[in-house]
């Protein structure tokens, strides 16, 4: 059983990641929250928590808990893209590197590869791009997942994946959460970056095909 620190555990996608990990026979989630008032939501479910604010010093977090891998699903909602989406991610990458984390799974965004080409959300995509590039050069095993537009629809368990896809599309947060958790496995995509949208191929098969390509 591996301990997975979920950064952004109180976000819509982060909550789904925590829920999936809680029912997994392989992983145990640790929810990172910003406030003490957010602890009970997880402690009532028997889920360990740790307090950390990505806008502040977080070097203490890895000292306080036993973490094997990290899922970074945090986001500022477009309000503080540099402080949270970029610099906050870098802080967590540094902390992970200093504690020899086995793998870092980053929730990014389609369009982050070439943010200069974006017609909207350019600052957000630039911040995500910078964080992704920082992770790539960190010497940590990583997977960067770049979904299309996120929806709150029920997941269908099927995706289309590419490096890149060269097409736009949407995907449910539930399906994104399942992709993030599946990439935590040792035989899943490593030192890899890919885009996903809803599709016709089962998530497991799509990721297996990607690993074998």
TrEMBL record:
GO terms for molecular function: NAD binding; oxidoreductase activity, acting on the aldehyde or oxo group of donors, NAD or NADP as acceptor. InterPro entries: NAD(P)-bd_dom, NAD(P)-bd_dom_sf, Semialdehyde_DH_NAD-bd. SUPFAM superfamilies: NAD(P)-binding Rossmann-fold domains. Transmembrane segments: none annotated. CDD domains: SDR_a5. Residues 3-118 form the Semialdehyde dehydrogenase NAD-binding domain. It holds the Pfam family NAD_binding_10. PANTHER family: FLAVIN REDUCTASE-RELATED (PTHR15020), UPF0659 PROTEIN YMR090W (PTHR15020:SF50). This is Oxidoreductase. It comes from Arenibacter certesii.
């Amino acid at each position: 059983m591996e301990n997975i620190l979920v950064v952004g555990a109180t976000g819509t996608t982060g909550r789904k990641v925590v829920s999936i990990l809680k029912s997994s026979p392989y992983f145990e989630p640790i929810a990172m929250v910003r406030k003490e008032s957010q602890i009970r939501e997880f402690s009532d479910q028997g889920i360990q928590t740790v307090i950390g604010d990505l806008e502040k010093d977080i070097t203490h977090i890895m000292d306080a808990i036993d973490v094997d891998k990290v899922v970074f699903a945090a986001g500022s909602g477009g309000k503080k893209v540099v402080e949270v989406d970029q610099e906050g991610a870098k802080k967590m990458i540094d902390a992970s590197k200093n504690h020899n984390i086995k793998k870092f799974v980053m929730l990014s965004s389609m369009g982050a590869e070439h943010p200069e080409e974006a017609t909207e959300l350019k600052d957000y995509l630039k911040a995500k791009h910078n964080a992704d590039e920082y992770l790539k050069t960190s010497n940590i095993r990583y997977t960067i997942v770049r979904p299309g537009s996120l929806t709150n629809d029920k997941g269908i368990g099927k995706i289309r994946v590419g490096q890149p896809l060269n097409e736009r599309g949407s995907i449910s947060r539930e399906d994104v959460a399942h992709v993030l958790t599946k990439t935590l496995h040792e035989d899943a995509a490593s030192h890899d970056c890919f885009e996903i949208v809803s599709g016709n191929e089962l998530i497991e098969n799509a990721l297996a095909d990607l690993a074998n390509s």
